[in-house]
Amino acid sequence: MSTSTTEITEEIQEQLNLSAVLMENFHKNIKHDSWFGLDPENETHKYLAKKLLKTYDIKSARELRNSVYIHEVIRKASNNFRDIACKLRIYSEEEYIKLLENQKYVIDRNYYRIVWPHRFSLYKTSLAGYDLAMAIFLLRMGGASGFIDETEMELRLTDITSSVKKIFNNWDSFHENVLIGHQFMTANMASDMAFFANSEQSVLQSLRYLKITNPHWFTQW
Amino acid sequence: MENTLENYIEVAELAYREGRWEEVNKAIRAAQEMVTGNEGNIDDLIRIRFYRIGIIYWTMYDNDLDIEFIKKYSDLLERHNTITLPDYQLICSFYNECPEEIMQRALLKYPDDLSLLNAYAKKLQELGQHNNAIIILEHLTELYPEASFAQLMLMHSRDQLLKVVMEQSENISTDEDIASSCFDLAIQSCNMTAIDELKKYPIINQQNKKFIHLDIQTCIYRKGFDKVSKKWQEGWRDKELDFNSVLLLANYFHAYSAYGLIKEVLEGYSFTDLEQMEQINEFNDLAAYWELANINKVQNRIMYNFSLANAYHYPGETEKETHYVNAGLELDPNNAFLTVLKSNAQLTVDKDPAEAYNTLNAAHLQGLPPKTYYQQLTIFYRLMADWNNVIKTINQYEVRNVPNEATIFYKADAFAHLGYQINALECLEDGVKYFSHTPYIIPMYQLGMMIYKSQKKYKLFFEDVKHKLSYCSKKGNEYWNTINQCVEIIFIIGDYRRCYEYASEAYRNNRLHPQLLPILQWLIAFDYDDYLEIPEVPEVTNDSVINNPQTPMDYFGNALRFWIMGFNLASAQAFEQAGDMGWETVYCYKRAFWRACRSEGHEEYTLELYDKIIAYDPTQREWLIDYRYAYILYTLKKYEQAIKAYKMLMEYYPNTAFEEEKDYNHNAAVLLDCERNLGNIEAATRYTSMRMSWQTPQKTDCKRLQVMADEHYPEELFLRYNLLRLSEEIETGLSQNEKESLKDIKRKLKSEYFS
Fold it and tell me: How far does CA B229 lie from the centroid of its chain?
């Protein structure tokens, strides 16, 4: 690895910041101004990154690239969201309530409840912001597990960032999308019971923490 | 089917529900052709249906929708007064195009709907009316605390408003009201640049509640728990705090399980009654209705109840806990976290696991995310001691979540309880390697110690002890508890030197458990003499014996005391009692056996103890004990049993029983003696012959065989002759009679066989 690629310019930092909220939510004491956030030399960090990737069925560099593709281009979370939204768009309120009651699994119920208020408003963008942030997040985790290096990261980051910029106009609308996406993917319909940064923190609290610790971030789009 | 408009619409609707998009497309195109230019003649209700399916279908793709359609659609709906919530949601979702009046009418009808509020807030944000947007969003976040995106919108609006105010008003630095409201907005929107700027103005009072809130926040984000709690004790507790700051502190202390501090922070706080709104007739009333949310702040009240309920749950003050849980659930019956607390109380206080399980599932139904649900379920099963389900639940948790120190420890613990020690050790290996910075490291090493102890891998056991002690402070109880535990375990293992090191260290620091004192006394009385700096231990006398022992440790201590004083039988009996109570049973029985061996005249009792050991666990047999048992049987002249016991010895311990040459002789000699005493001459002869088969047989054997031959086989002349000659050769010396009979036999043989 040459030194020129490992240097993080302001532009790259901004690109990396697209995943900062998800990183902060995943683990505290993330080094946000590094390529991978976690330290590939640190055994615990490597273990965490590998275990996280395992939950996405990623055990090799090839599978990592597949998963990034699935999020970046195919937009997996967006598609799931859109499928449910599409179904719900034609439902009347009574039909919706009946649908909720007939769900066998609680998690499906939560999915429907999360999508219902956004089924019209979020239909077009769907969860694109979350998907793209997730792609960067997975790349950084892959880097921490030793699957890819900085050069590849840099190239991929440029692609992903240009997609993000096409869809969103500012940091807040992007982060809003990430928050809804995270809520959807974790099927979380419970309120936050944490006001500050701790290990079980919510994404919102992570964002708040980042805003406090890095005041100049998330200002310029 | 006729090609009417209604049919087309019906086909399109059905196809949409079933996801057949081409068909939808075809039907809608056909319907559209019929509608265009012909609108006046079509029934309004059918047109409404056409517009609805049309808008829903067209917005599926990126085509820009003609805003005329939406206008026509909403006009029609309102004219016929058939408009429903989903219609409004659909129309208002185009918040850029949708006229404000429609939105207002929609909100007047449904003032609490998430989508409508969201759309209106977005519209207001677009229009730059951040003041109003904040009111709406505050209402929204109070009603839907799970909608974190709305919190972000709120932050955004506040930030924008702050920017506008700071740019426009010229007298921030002099007007206290404006400055303080700006400061408020800056804190709420986490705008650190603005905060830093505002701090410089002397008009903002440094003793202000807001300033303290900021101080608390920065302290929490930048410093650790120690600093925060110290600052609370020293400064903040005496000052008047904002309720937000109080909640923030309580929440922070909750994460560190400082329940005493939570009570200190929150107690004594009283609320005014919730304010109610009578009726909403006009849109202007709505603003007041939404502002109620900001006044009532129901979520803060729920947080208050949640924190206090938690604070009372762990110390076990159940009545107060139930009070706060119920108070919280009254405010919001669907709060998942409060329902979890209710479930905990049902399990621990009411002892009703079935009900607790149902309540936990209800919490899941209310929206508890699967991650938290699995964590709670794991805790539930742990309290129920249902280890199989603990493992199952954690496996499910780990499908979608990264394992953490708690799940790893719980899993290992469950495996250990089920007896899968190898799996437990595998889990612990990960835990110890990657989570050594967490508080779970101590219980993890403790579990490892217990597993290695039961596997009898003492080297690994002592390694874990060393690691565990390295994580404990000598000031804390955990360190000395471990030492005490080790003294007990190591004594049983038999590593007396190390046991003495631990016990004397604890004794010098006054931390040795009184029940373990006899161990130290025993070590000093019986073990090595070269111990350095023996601490002054009270002498064991009859008075130090516990008169009415209750626990196995009492009996064990007594047994050691009797042993030191030399009362072997009493010691044996005390050991037996301790074993009977299920504490290290095999060890106690074995000790009792040896003590009983030392007390003469109680051989029968010793045999009973041996039977007890074998009946308790036949795999725990030991060469020395078995050998002793056989020997006692022999000395008691129970020959038949003794023969069995000796044969068993050879069967179970072939290596030990025949380790040396003389052992063959020894076993054969005992068996020979038993057989002879029982009168089995043939068997006795066999054993004697066996002994004779060595190159240099023993004189006694030779003699014995010769006597036996003389006695029982007087006709076997050759045998008798050979034996007599042998005796003569190995210089046993023959008596006069034997010499005579040798001569006699010689003569007979000559005359009978060789003449």
Answer: 28
Task: Check if the beta carbon of residue A54 is closer than 8 Å to that of residue A84.
Answer: no
- What residue segments make up the domains of chain B, in order of their start? 708-755
H helices of B297-369, where?
A: 298-313, 318-331, 336-348, 353-366
DSSP B63-124: SPPPHHHHHHHHHHHHHHT---HHHHHHHHTSTTTS-HHHHHHHHHH-TT-HHHHHHHHHHH
* Helical axes B699-712 vs B717-729, angle rounded to 10°: 160
Is residue A53 predicted with pLDDT exceeding 90? yes
Q: How confident is the model at residue A144 (pLDDT cuts 50, 70, 90)?
A: very high
CB spacing of B398 vs A55 below 8 angstroms? yes
> By the 8 A CB rule, do B610 and B603 touch?
no
Question: CA-to-CA distance for B416 and B390, rounded, in angstroms?
Answer: 12
CA pair distance A117, A121, nearest whole angstrom: 8
Q: What's A74's DSSP letter?
A: I
Question: What per-residue confidence (pLDDT) applies to A195?
Answer: 67
Looking at the complex, report in whole angstroms how far the Cα of residue B590 sits from the nearest Cα belonging to chain A.
47
Q: Could you report the per-residue pLDDT of B303-319, keeping only the tens digit for each? A: 899 989 988 988 888 88
Ramachandran quadrant class, B542 (left: phi over 0; alpha: psi -120 to 50; beta: rest): alpha
| CA–CA distance, B483 with B477 (Å, rounded to integer) | 10
d(CA A161, CA A182) in angstroms, rounded, equals 19
CB-based contact A183 B149, cutoff 8 Å: yes
SS3 of B689-729: HHHHCCCCCCHHHHHHHHHHHHHHCCCCHHHHHHHHHHHHH
DSSP assigned state of B272: P
d(CA B418, CA A192): 36
Alpha-carbon torsion (B520, B524, B530, B535), positive or negative = positive
* Complex confidence, ipTM: 0.93
B563 vs B569: CA distance, rounded Å: 9
Count of CB atoms situated within 10 Å of the CB of B528: 10
> What is d(CA A130, CA A76) in angstroms, rounded to the nearest whole number?
10
3-class SS at B349? coil
Q: How is residue A158 written in tokens? A: 């440029």
Closest-CA residue to B590 (of B614, B565, B570, B568): B614
Is the Cβ pair A195, B403 closer than 8 Å?
A: no
What residues of A are in contact with residue B149 (Cβ under 8 Å)?
Answer: 176, 179-180, 183
State how far the Cα of B265 lies from the Cα of B735, in Å rounded to an integer: 107
Give B115-150 as a DSSP string.
HHHHHHHHHHHHHT-HHHHHHHHHHHHHH-TT-HHH
Name the residue among B17, B118, B155 with its Cβ closest to that of A121. Answer: B118
